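Archive maintenance. Older records in this collection stored only the sequence; we are now back-filling the structure field for every entry so that each record is complete. The fields below show one back-filled record exactly as it appears after the update. Entries are processed alphabetically, and BRWD3 protein is next in the queue.

ARCHIVE ENTRY
Title: BRWD3 protein
Organism field: Panurus biarmicus
Length field: 262
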Amino acid sequence: TKLKVTMVAWDRYDATVITAVNNFLLKVWNSSTGQLLHSLSGHDDEVFVLEAHPFDQRIVLSAGHDGNIFVWDIDKGTKIRNYFNMIEGQGHGAVFDCKFSPDGQHFACTDSHGHLLLFGFGCNKYYEKIPDQMFFHTDYRPLIRDANNYVLDEQTQQAPHLMPPPFLVDVDGNPHPTRFQRLVPGRENCKDEQLIPQLGYVANGDGEVVEQVIGQQTNDQDESILDGMIRELQREQDLRLINEGETPPNPPLNRSHSVNGG
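Back-filled structure field:
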């Protein structure tokens, strides 16, 4: 079988070059002489992630499609730590990317199941406020191309980067509470009522269709769209009663309506 290099990384001081090969071995080379220093074994599938420590030239991190994450000492050619990304009920998850934090005390990985894995020193209390499942409500919305071949959101006809900040939802599309919605850049200082993700679409003054929270849309009388819809439904019902020879209640002190639509 012809061997192929799947990934290359230099250490932070350019003294060594690390290569990943499709026979699942990592090789450490002297960058000046080309001498092979170490062959590192441990992976049993292809490796597409090699990440050098931000300041310690001895440390390199590797991760691959076998779900393994290794921390190596490339000076000694030894394994420091090994983590296996086992997902309950689904087998392992291939690791697609890893990055160190600037201080070198933590690293983060992403896998084929959409998980973000955080490793490091200390406790995880800081991260406990984050829901287990976080998606933007726009993540799986279809896109189209306009006459100039630019990408647009199909529903709003807007360029995705010009749309309002998205809402955070779980895997089923259910919105997270308002305290989590404020974690989205652009929604940090929103009022609670602006963070209720009941989305609607209206045309602005330039004729562009824009996305808005239904509770925040207003008509010409500064009345919310929802209130306007209820008022219009009430007016239509009262007119129908008058045409049928009945007198509508006057005034309604406590009236509720249930509107069913398909």
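Update note: Helices lie at 178-181, 225-243. Confidence is low (pLDDT under 50) at residues 213-217, 223-227, 249-262.
Entry marked complete.
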